[in-house]
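Hey, quick one: can you model this chain's 3D structure?
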Amino acid sequence: MKKVSVIFGAPGIGKTTAAKVLYQRINHAQYVDVDDLWRIHPFIVNEENKVLVETNLKHLYQSFLDHPTLEHFIVTWVVPTEGLKNLIFEWFKDSEVHFYRLVAKEDVYLKRLINDHRDQTKFDDYKAINSKNEYKDVKTIDVSEMDIKDVVDVLYQELKGVNNGA
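Sure thing. Here's the predicted structure for all 166 residues.
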């Protein structure tokens, strides 16, 4: 059975950076950053744009399923609610799905946002996503004391365990 790993967390937590390195360590893997599907100008979150993004992600997933040699689909996304996580699980029901949530201590996270020159008017929203604890059936990884290599190593070991049935 093909495998899907969804790496999610608040903006600026390190999802994209980790996944860009991670997928290159896994044979027969494809990586999709859902942020790329949201590159719509002007950026407006409305029903039409949500449907567009969801449709595009579902098409990419179907192409992954149809591909004869790809075995692992790695997706990064903010996933701000348990409801969206469950919806993603439903979309990918033809595969073995695992969710990995990256979080950090608030002071560490704020320092990262500032160093990344993120929009400070959104910090409260980002902090709320980072501190949310509503998720079930998710492996949470605290990246506060980790550099990107450490994060990738932890994720790789998790995926390796999934691939070996551990």
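One thing worth noting: The chain has seven helices and five strands.
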